[in-house]
């Protein structure tokens, strides 16, 4: 009988380490050819790969490409159609009931759903995430994610597990919009959180969504691979590869060189040429605008309606649109015409230089006396073309005798300012702050910009505090009837317009360009997108 030669333990250790290294090398690549359905490579406008946390960062672009692909909410938006504004639909919750006073909601959870790691989604997983984001004494409390998710939990009073497939949520007041909030609350695998901890969770992000994270190199690339066990629909697309490219020219170059199949907001001057080359040009109205915020904590804008109106009349919106090759269009108010919150009672601001000059005088300023500092991003999620737009704004204001000092910043810094507020010492020298809200995508989205106070007792980031707006927005959120909700929101828009609380500037047309090989894409009236039914390949 032959005997197996003995090897020293050190050799086995070396072999084991070699296997680990080889495995790491294999996992660092998008392994082999793409699965059936093809590989969709995307050049994002974000400056970095969104953290796959719950919630993700990088604004709604983080939700669009990362959050909603790795995870699910109890509800979801019906993004597979383009004819109407998407609304909440059953997702991880298959049904729900609410008390007559809209303060107690009971959700029946979908059975048979598993996380990417094979563990079961159930009521315990829901309660785990709520405690992780709301209960400071909870072992796995995540302060960073809690701050980002605070707005979605604004009206949560309590939550409890009724049984394995039933969860009850109580709100602090009658609240009709909980289903909208729940679309933005995402559920990680409790096992993954416990195993890796909050600090290392992003490297091992694990949800129930249509795609699994199979590669993540911060600042460079993320690969999402189809979840063949996805509960909702068979996912057609095999793989998504994400590249952060904050410069429009870089996104255009990657598209034309064949490095990507999808480019977010490439250079607007390229649209006609791309169309001639056979690319799919996607444009359409959706809830997104560029609506800069006045610093209402102090002069010159506090208690100075005439000045706020003067700058609104000074904006040549049609000229800005022309500079952008009409991939955006003039804003008459915060939401676009066609959004159910839109009010036609009050006309918006036209381009009227003489009227702007008269209002500037009423505001107490002669031409050349007023200098303003405006902070804006150099790029980033959903910001259209800030450099070009800001140069036009600067020229428009100069035409009525107002000097504008431009203060370019990284997009995440702009987000931080929005969280800290313009009353914070480090940002108090900013007079106008760039804002690119998902204006009207969800009624819950108005709360951060319009309410006097934010969660945690913080003041409105720009100092906006109008009792009429608070009353209208609160009343809207307490109406069981949807038509009544929007009636109050229209009243709120009317107050905001009359008081010129924002610089109502531009609406975006959501330009994105796709390769001819991309099929099955639907351009919804939303920042978010359904990737499950897309395929990539030749006809």
From TrEMBL:
Q: Which Gene3D superfamilies match?
A: Dipeptide-binding Protein, Domain 1, Dipeptide-binding Protein, Domain 3, Periplasmic binding protein-like II
Q: What is this protein called?
A: ABC transporter substrate-binding protein
From what superkingdom does this record's organism come?
Bacteria
**Record's InterPro entries?**
Peptide/Ni-bd, SBP_5, SBP_5_dom
Chain ranges of the Solute-binding protein family domain: 87-448
Task: Give the matching SUPFAM superfamilies.
Answer: Periplasmic binding protein-like II
Q: Which PANTHER family match?
A: PERIPLASMIC BINDING COMPONENT OF ABC TRANSPORTER
Which Pfam families does this UniProt record tie to the protein?
SBP_bac_5
- Matches recorded under PROSITE patterns: PROKAR_LIPOPROTEIN
From what organism does this protein derive?
Kribbella alba
